[in-house]
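Quick one: structure for this chain?
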Amino acid sequence: MGFCAICPVLAILAIDSMRRRRRAGDKPPQKEKLLRPAGYSCSLRLDEAEYNFIGWLLGATAACSFAGAMVLITSAYIKARGFAALAWVPGVSLLASALLTGECVRRALKKINDGRNLRLGLRGEQAVAEVLHEVADCGFHAFHDLQRGGKSGNIDHVAVGPQGVFVIETKAKTMRRSRSEQPRHVVLVNGDVLNFAFGYDADAIPQAQDNVDWLSDHLSKKTAEPVEAQAIVVLPGSWWIEQASKTDSKVAVMNANYLAKYLRGKTKKVLEPAQVQRIVAELDEKCRDVEF
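Got it. Here's what it folds into:
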């Protein structure tokens, strides 16, 4: 019984050890690093969430097994030796096990919810990446998951071409039940706030503008030429975007289906070919950090 109680713990340790050995022992077939694919950060966090979910689930199993073992061992000891002073042990063990199991289950459920949100975000970034690949014939180069460094986060997509530099922030949402008369597929843009039928998002537009400011400054310094990027917030899916009020916002908001038409409509050339190549070279170097 004692061995059965520690089996889940041994399983956790074995999985973690195998994971570490594989990371340390595997040798990639090539030294050259790859460009970050769309949603790469989301995929890493999704892997971590799934791994942690298994760990917390095994932790709950271990807590239950330990409590059961303590109850059986203590009961057998009391029955054999008549040592009534240990009568409190089974009850305390069961109580501690219930609390610990409840906490492990709570955290496991949280990882399930985190995984669901991460998977939605990953699919959204992949959907936008497909659109960016479609407009490659217009001279656009697409980069994904550009890391700003430190705790500043990342930029979902950057499209670079003679038409300019476009910073794209992807916000994937599920169409939930409407809480008002507003249709569930309609999004009202009110200043810097995206009003959905089931809630609002006050972060997407400011985040896109902050990313534009950072990238414009970064590229201007690296290329020694002024670069002014443009911000786009893209909602993957069949959303209908409406302006709820007149605004001078520099951030365009659209669904993924309209993104290709929007970029193809940018016919004015604002960057010289040599400048485009310098910007592309800088972004390629910054995004090429994925081990094979």
